[in-house]
């Protein structure tokens, strides 16, 4: 997302046994992780409806959700985790900084693609994340079971059933397709880097460095592109605050919390539930009728996720 790598390397095997997905954990702790994962998916599912309802440039919204998250985390990170931040080590710090750059790249590629190609095509291409996650793990020496591959492909098919995909021969649309595909790859890198850093660093320490880096990179992107960073009305600011709480602090942060236990393949596959989740939330909140394929697509995605989880449990047994 060759020969096996050392335990510290990205995608390495863990003590749970040969072939176990990196970061996977046996036992009762998984129940808590799956509960937190459900909250995280609900949080990120609010992202698209909130962005659609917010009258501000997309890159500026991405900047503010990260900058506000850093502001919320600062008292906790600089007080309770100050010592840990100092002891993170060069490798963990470097990977956290890199994860922040990759997350900014994800936002920077995907958001512009929405205005260059169809939203359905952009969504379908950006949700290829679990495929890239599994491929990167394979390149790094981890050998994903066939059930992981089957579950990953099945879950992506579920998203395609919901969103549809209509590749155009128009040059601008093709460029947008390429950006969305690149955003999906960047998201895979973000998940994998986070799973590696979380081996040794707490969620707070990692997300503080990661979000801070993302905010700085996106600020530069806003300044270069001329995206307005202010002048919004009160309602717009309230929606940005809501987006920060739901999608960033409860969404991304909890995903970074559970990736250590559930592993990158399960986590990245579960993120696909954001698409039907956003469709259902938009139906309830914005009055947008979900497409007829929403419910069967949700079932297909859940079936794919179940196969990935089953493969992980079989290897952990």
TrEMBL record:
GO terms for cellular component: membrane. Residues 35-163, 175-309 form the EamA domain. Residues 1-27 are annotated as: Disordered. SUPFAM superfamilies: Multidrug resistance efflux transporter EmrE (SSF103481). The chain crosses the membrane at residues 34-56, 62-80, 92-111, 117-135, 147-167, 173-193, 205-230, 236-255, 267-286, 292-311. Keywords: Membrane, Transmembrane, Transmembrane helix. This is Permease of the drug/metabolite transporter (DMT) superfamily.
